[in-house]
Amino acid sequence: MRNPIRLLLSAALAVSLPLSAQEDAELVVKVSPLPAPLHLLQGRGGNVVASVGEDGVLIIDDDYTNYAPVYAETLKGLAAAGEATPRFVLNTHWHFDHTGGNAFWGERGAVIVAHDNVYQRMSTRQEMKAMNRVVEPSPRPALPVVTYADSLALRFNGTTIEAQYYPSGHTDGDSVVYFVEQNVVHMGDHFFKDRFPFVDLGSGGSVGGYLNNVRAVLKRIDTNTVVVPGHGDLATRADLRSYVGMLEATIGLVNDRLDDGASVDEIVAEGLGNKWDSWGAGFIDEAKWIRTIAASR
């Protein structure tokens, strides 16, 4: 019997839904199949998972603000004759590439759900020093209406959706979302597939906590789990295990060199070794990852 995960990975389908002539033609959402009633939607920001069925629509994260109308058109296509406006939007964390569509959906009646700390950060002015950016408080329709301290469960479209809080990882408000019956997990930014991660130390994240959290998810899932990263293509448990291996090796190397008395600049000059060259091709390059590890000690 063929592995169901590989079937899904090989069946990824790019769907470009037309917008009006006034809309930017470059704003495209890619749709890939997941076990019914789930779909992976990918624009420019964080990955979105949509549950579309007889109870309506629920989405995990909602990309950048300017992509919201494109997601609206995409969901109309997936919902067919049904209601396409999400009843629920669940945010994995507060960053604007995952919550940018909140106001759009909140104004249309969607219930925004997130961890307590997501509300706290979205409702106050945030300085993202790592990106040299100040984020003003979000408008009221964008703010979570339902919040939780540890975990939350939703029964929707015939499946159990569990949002589990993992502390001091990517930020201080991250949740990983488990679709129990479908054996699908959306990891938010606790997983950048085949890339060094962005750990937002200014938002309460930590490198040690990040590694512990990813290890915890790895223990919970099995070889048939479909793993949705915050950024990147659909993955397997083996891909996540490779990610943990990278984290363990690179964090250990930097900490060992620091313990030996090396400066951060010296470690940056030395690098992490050729094995990890390709992992620095994303938002976080090798030097940034080394400096993040050192700053998180």
Automatic annotation (TrEMBL):
Gene Ontology BP term (one): antibiotic catabolic process
Record-linked SMART domains: Lactamase_B
Stored InterPro entries: Metallo-B-lactamas, NDM-1-like, RibonucZ/Hydroxyglut_hydro
Transmembrane segments: none
Keyword Signal assigned: yes
Domain Metallo-beta-lactamase: 45-231
A Pfam entry, by short name: Lactamase_B
CDD domains, A to Z: metallo-hydrolase-like_MBL-fold (cd16282)
Example of a GO MF term: hydrolase activity
Signal peptide coordinates: 1-21
Keywords: Hydrolase, Signal
Family designation: Belongs to the metallo-beta-lactamase superfamily. Class-B beta-lactamase family.
Descriptive protein name: MBL fold metallo-hydrolase
Species for this entry: Parahaliea maris
Organism ancestry: Bacteria, Pseudomonadati, Pseudomonadota, Gammaproteobacteria, Cellvibrionales
